[in-house]
Amino acid sequence: MTNPQLWLSVLEVGCFFGLLGLAYLVVLQGSGFFNLTIGPYAMLAALAWTGLTIHAEMEVWSALAVALVAVVVVAALTEMLVVRPIERRSGGSEFPALVAVAALLFGISQGAGLLFGRLPLPGQEVLTFAPIEVAGASVTPSFVLIATLAVVAFGGVALVAHTTRAGRALRAVGDNREAARILGLPVNRVRLVAFMASGLIAALAGIAFASRGGISYDLGLHWALLGFLAVVIGGTGSWLAPLLGGLILGLAEVMVPYYIGGQFADYAVLVCALIFFGLRPQGLFTTRVRA
């Protein structure tokens, strides 16, 4: 396990899973709702960018802007047209909305397949430079992109959450929606912003990661599961927790196929999930409450 190229791959894959987990955590902390459509958001952004560039012959950066805006709009509509009205009709119960969002997960995936085709497409390159040799490893543009995005996203979210009024409102609504409403906080607006911010993070992550190995409409469910597991493993007690969870999953996704065989990658992820579900369901980082 001394191959430096393998460890770069672990970091790259782990940062992607961690970013998906961060998107989950942002919407969870800002709305108290677990939005299962994070994976499809990431898939839709990457597929739309590539599809618009290849099939519609749109200019690369214009297609990128359209893809990002489209996913943010879809995230906003998820909250306004699916989660909010269903929770209102069910008396605040989250389960019916969760079921509806699970159905939406498949709807987004199938809709993306209809719009942009069901064949895999190559991801578009955001950065273009020759790979750089560092300590026996080849640093690729996709690695630089996903690592930089992870640093900016995790650092930016933590900074906003802990130092700004908007960040405090976000956490207050997620902790106790009714108490936040009594205090005069714009609960619906904060929840909407949380959904949109998580959609943007997922979209950027999907676009960055697609440049590594391409994109297909059926990746949404797989990415949704891995982002969810990154939160389960890392926990919700720190904004950096999903990154640690993602890196653990990245270790399993890269090392197990290399040393044992590609058919065992899913089993390795399953073992990680079972270990944390069974032995530490609260994850590695938990929220401390002082009595």
Kindly list the characteristics that best describe this protein.
291 residues, mainly alpha, ABC transporter involved in vitamin B12 uptake, BtuC, two-stranded antiparallel sheet, 11 helices, 2 strands, 74% helix
Structural overview:
- This protein has a single domain, classed as ABC transporter involved in vitamin B12 uptake, BtuC.
- The protein is built from eleven helices and two strands.
- It is globular, with a radius of gyration of 19 Å.
- With 291 residues, the protein is an all-alpha fold.
- The chain has a two-stranded antiparallel ribbon.
- The chain has helices spanning 4-31, 38-54, 60-89, 95-116, 141-163, 165-175, 177-182, 187-213, 219-234, 241-259, 265-279, and strands spanning 132-134, 137-139.
- It starts with a helix and ends in a 12-residue tail after the last helix.
- A hairpin with a 2-residue loop joins strand 1 and strand 2 (137-139).
CATH architecture: Orthogonal Bundle
Oligomer: single chain
Residues in β-strands, percent? under 5%
Mean pLDDT, all residues: 89
Tell me the CATH topology: ABC transporter involved in vitamin B12 uptake, BtuC
Major sheet: order of its strands?
1-2
The major β-sheet equals:
2 strands, antiparallel
Compute the separation of the termini in Å: 45 Å
CATH class: Mainly Alpha
Tally of helical segments: 11
**How many distinct domains?**
1
Fraction of residues in helix = over 70%
User: How are helices and strands ordered from N to C?
Assistant: HHHHEEHHHHHHH
Structural class by helix and strand composition = mainly alpha
Uncertain runs are none
The number of strands is 2
Rounded radius of gyration (Å): 19 Å
Name the shape in a single word. globular
